[in-house]
Each structure stands twice: as C-alpha cells, then as structure tokens.
Amino acid sequence: MIAALGGEQMRPFTIVLLGFLLVIFLGSVALVVFDNSVLPTAIEPNQLAAYGTFIGGVLTPITIMVAAFALLQRERAHQAEMKSLQSQSNRLDLMRFVQKIEKDIQAELDKLTINVTYKQEQVNATGTDAFLNITFLEWRAVIPSEKQVKDRLHASNGQVSRNEPLVICYEAFSTITIYLNSLRQYCQEHDKLSGTNMTTLYFLRKYRVGIERLSDQGYGVQEWKPMAQQNAQADAG
Q: Which of 19, 92, 128, 185 gives 20 to 30 Å between its CA and that of 40?
C-alpha cells in the first residue's frame, strides 16, 4: 500500500512524489501499448492527438486519486496532531488537579499536632508522623477509628466538643480519605492518557503507609491499582 512503508505512515509529499513517478511510469507503458513500433519522433500529428487523448483518459483518474489520497493523509495527520495536543492539554490539567490535592492533603496533616504517649513518654505527634512515618508505632492515637469516635460519643451522651483532639483528627483524616480517592481517580485518568502507570505508582508509593493505616481504621479508602495491574487482572478474568 502506498501509505505504508516499513509499518510507518508516509508523509503526503512522499505520496505525491511516488504518485508522480507512477504517472511517468504508466505514461511510458501507455506509449508502448499505444504503438510499440513507433518512436515519439516518428508519431504523426493525428497519432499524437490520439495518443494524448489516450494518456489523458488513463492517467487523469490516477492523478486525481493520488492527489485525493495525499489530501486524506494530510487531514489524518492533522487530526492526529490535534488529538495529541488535546491529550497533552488534558494531562497538564489533570496534573494541576493532582498537585492541588497533594497540597490539600499536606495542609490537613499540618493542622494536626496531638500529644500522645510514645515509648513511655509524652510527645507531640504530627499528622505527618501518623500518616507517613512507618516507624511511628502509636499512629492509632492520632488516626482514630469510627468505632473510637462512636464509643466516645456514647460515653459522653453525645456531648463532645468539636475542638476535642479525637474529633479534630477524625474529621481531618476523613477529609484526607476523600482527597486520596479523588487523587486516585485523577492519577488513573492521567495514566490512561499518557499510556503509563508512573503517576499512580508514584503516589501509591508516597502514600502507601497512610493508605494502609486509613484502611485499617475503616476510613473507606479506595484500592489503588496501577494500570498494568488492572490490565493483568482483566486478562485473567
């Protein structure tokens, strides 16, 4: 096929050039077919007119087809270019959303400073310690479960101040859970557009400890699955 050479799409200029060479070749063949025994210098005027009519009738449709095909290829190349630009724009927009969510998560963590007993000492634990520090073993004192909150409400007959550390932490990590679920969706959409799973893998590794701890405490964090893992599971199914 004219449009393919070595599996790559040919440029419109190349197609036109090949079409022009094809026209010359077919013209030469037509000359031989028209009168194999007559050289061009010996053609009579009436024969020359007939020959011109013959050549025009044969080559004009071919020339039109080649030109139309080149135009079609150019239009396809233009559409592919526009699609690529749109995809790049969408990826940039998604990455801006991702970066904003990342800042929002950090802002929620920065709000939290809780006094807890750690290694038999009273220390001020931050939200970042509880969420991301794998060596911080008292994270449950900072990331309360829904059961802990309900038990506290029951014990106080529902009279719990919103300024109480337990409530502040629960609200903060509930908000972070919402952010993480949104972040997961944006990362997966970005990966679909880029054709890789690098964005999902990066944030999964960054927040793995926090995701596991929130899941353990029943916060309803959606499962993160990189694109390659999703495809493998789909193939297995």
A: 19
Domain that holds residue 135: 89-230
Q: Using CA atoms, how far apart are residues 236 and 172, in angstroms rounded to an integer?
A: 38
Domain identity same for 223 and 106: yes
Q: Is residue 19 part of a domain?
A: yes
The most distant pair of C-alpha atoms in the chain lies apart, rounded to whole Å, by 116
What DSSP state is assigned to residue 70? H
Percent over 70 (pLDDT), the chain: 57
- What are the tens digits of pLDDT across the range 163-179? 888 888 999 999 999 99
Number of domains in the chain: 2
Q: In this predicted structure, which of 90-94, 123-127, 157-161, 169-173 has the lowest mean pLDDT? A: 157-161
Instruction: Provide CB contacts within 8 A for 177, sequence distance 6+.
Output: 214, 219, 220, 221
